[in-house]
Design brief:
328 residues, mainly alpha, two-stranded antiparallel sheet, 4 strands
């Protein structure tokens, strides 16, 4: 069981980032420049929309916007300019376009968050960092940009982006809920990803606590400690060249790594989200896998933290480790 979970979770974080980054770039041409060919080619627009998981209303809104822009070349050209202003983070330029044509923000051309999506940049390469133009995001919202329509991708992009703070993400998610977003949504194209577990998975505990308190828990929530065990902790050891052996057996390298400050800082972060999980009445039985890892590592401190969170440890596990560590 341990190995199957380890294998299934090992690359999921990377794959998810690649997938969402491609969707981010795909958002109807707002990559390097606005794709006006969608406006010019009605058939192409229809074909692309038919491939997307969007509602009938979303499709109708987009086609109506395309039709309106085809009849107004000046607004179309200014929308191209506005999209580039947003991409370049030029608020003064964006303000000028919106003042010239106030209707620009009412056009619904992008199924995944429209111009707000352009303020986000998710990096696939681990040597780089995510980017979030918070000032531009807030500016567009202040000028009347819808923060939530029928599009369910934007909240996931916010959760995934490391540059979006927990506090800012919580603020936006609250506004989205006020605008009618169901906190129980799953991600377009991947129904195995839900807001509650994604907030946990991307270390946004305040946002996760809000979602869990105000929305219905997803079907994936209770088993989340398995993700912590095999998708977080075991991956941490593998990425640091200190993998466990088969049957979840610690190695001298993994035990040595568990004594490092790097490990302690990592584990503290895992406890933050585990605390949210337990406070939301998560099923404790799945935490047994995390306990096994700590026991193998002879990690007395982490076992004691589990106990303080209210988790009932297996009989004698902690006491045996305390006896082993006594006098060291």
């Amino acid at each position: 069981m341990a190995n199957s979970f380890k294998n299934s979770y090992f690359y999921i974080g990377y794959i998810r980032r690649v997938f969402l980054s491609l969707l981010l770039c795909f958002s109807f041409g707002l990559t390097d420049e606005f794709d006006t060919t969608l406006i010019e080619n009605w058939q192409k627009a229809n074909e692309i929309l038919d491939t997307l998981k969007i509602s009938k209303k979303q499709k109708e809104d987009i086609l109506n916007s395309i039709k309106a822009l085809k009849e107004n070349e000046n607004e179309l050209n200014e929308l191209v300019t506005l999209s580039l202003c947003v991409k370049n983070g030029d608020i003064k330029c964006a303000k000028k376009s919106i003042e010239k044509y106030p209707k620009l923000l009412s056009y619904k051309l992008h199924p995944y968050g429209s111009l707000l999506t352009v303020t986000l940049n998710i990096k696939i390469d681990k040597t780089k960092v995510d980017f979030f133009d918070e000032k531009m995001f807030d500016f567009l919202v202040s000028k009347g940009h819808r923060i939530y329509g029928d599009d369910n991708m934007l909240p996931f992009l916010l959760l995934l982006n490391e540059a979006v703070s927990d506090e800012k993400c919580l603020e936006i998610i609250k506004k989205m809920r006020d605008d009618g977003m169901d906190l129980g949504i799953t991600m377009p194209y991947n129904e195995n990803l839900s807001l509650d577990t994604e907030a946990l998975d991307n270390y946004k505990p305040k946002t996760a606590a809000y979602i869990l308190k105000n929305g219905q828990k997803s079907q994936f929530f209770n088993a989340y400690p398995l993700k912590i065990a095999y998708g977080h902790i075991m991956v941490f050891f593998t990425e640091n060249n200190a993998s466990f052996e088969k049957e979840l057996k610690a190695t001298p390298k993994s035990i040595e790594l568990s004594k490092s400050e790097k490990y302690k800082k990592f584990i503290d972060r895992e406890f933050e989200i585990l605390k949210v999980y337990l406070e939301a009445n998560g099923d404790e039985k799945f935490i047994a896998e995390i306990e096994k890892i700590f026991t193998e590592l002879n990690d007395q401190e982490s076992l004691e933290k589990l106990e303080k969170l209210g988790y009932k440890l297996k009989k004698d596990n902690l006491e045996n480790i305390r006896r082993q560590n006594f006098g060291k």
